[in-house]
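Below is how a single chain appears once it has passed through the pipeline. First comes the sequence as given, then the structure the pipeline wrote out for it. We keep one example in the README because the format questions we get most often are answered faster by looking than by reading.
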Amino acid sequence: MLKSHLVGIGIALAIFVGGPGVYATSQRDLEQRRTPVVRVVEKASPSVVNISTQKIVQRRVSPFGGIGDSFFDSFFKDFLAPEFIQRFKLKTLGSGIVFGNGKRVLTNEHVIDQAEEISVITNTGQRFTASLIGADPVTDLAVLKIKGDTPLPPIPLGTSSDLMIGETVIAIGNPFGLSNTVTSGVISSLHRSLQSKGRIYKDLIQTDASINPGNSGGPLLNILGKVIGINTAIYSNAQGIGFAIPIDKVKRISSALVKYGKVPPVWVGIDCQPLTSAIARHFQFKGDKGILITAIEKGSPAADGRLKVGDIITSIDHDPVFTPLMFQQIINQHLPEDRVVFTVSRNGSPQKHSLKLKRLTPKHGTFLVHRIFGFEIRNLNRKEKHILENSGISGVAISDIAPNSFAAVNGLRRNDILLRLNDIPLKDVRTFKKVLIDHVRTGKFELVLLRGSYTYKIVFNLYQS
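Resulting structure:
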């Protein structure tokens, strides 16, 4: 009996003594399982945040007791009394990364668009209030400032200049509100363009790492744990395709947002028109895609870059140019002081011209007015001012209209008086140009004009067909 008892103790001691050995083996196994992807996630997760916003959304309610007829809704939408406008709070979720000094967060513009309250939540559950430093709907980027004295750990930013198709990438975000969800994949393609929900995205990284709603604003990381892109969009027509903004572009745009609160538009100084087969033959151009330069502004980047009237622009850097609107979309992706290469055909011979872009100001806006709206404007004359003086309103007048332009197609006429642009009263030509420049990157415009005793409203999006 005693012998049996001692044997039991010996077994127990053996198990106890063997315990540390088993634990050491477990640690070794754990280290072997800690792959490069796991190491990246462990390192990056404290810098990836959940962004929660609250916005007030207005919805028009039909005054006809829920008839829901689109004709009536359209006809009366500008005349509904406040009691027919319903307001409610909408909460949205997204992702972001802490960068720089640990007090700033990068995310997508659509995550915080129209937000009245912004909260930043860390992977440990800490919640901070944040304010908006600057946002840009064109590149879909925004920079937030975290309120409070304690900085969060910033994430290291890499470069997107040497990305390789096929290299491993990791996406971290908060899809469907599920904090710090990790997916991995490879880079599928580079320099992708995408149109989604009324927005146009250019020069994107394409990946097969799963990116779902809520991932927007989160990082795309390489195997070294450095951010190479900001996840931004989902291609809704296919599974397993995600997109990210290259981090080199993110750095440039975020610097502008911190400095200016917005991205300043750039000045090129050309006017252009679509290419036709007759124009192509006249200028000995053998291709069928491009735009014709019809005017160059003196002292502009185009003039400094030795572009000429009659040149046919076929591409800017790696982006092909087929229409004047495509030209504007490409230019919108750049900042003042950027250097870009224009490929043109001159008398049938291809040439490349390097241009250093400048900041667009109202004094440079004449060509822009003509290219976008297809009209020229002037300040009101004495008679027109006299007509408006009793009403307390001001405006500018259309002095000329180009054939087949936006103005011509929409029935605008010479001497129409433009009262407001994007809800801004127009005091003079300079005011019109300033408002145009402030909104040219988004391409959304609303014109109110006076003709005789009637006012008309024209709404359009430059970048939507």
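The chain has four domains: 48-146, 168-260, 266-360, 365-461.

See the next section for the split statistics.
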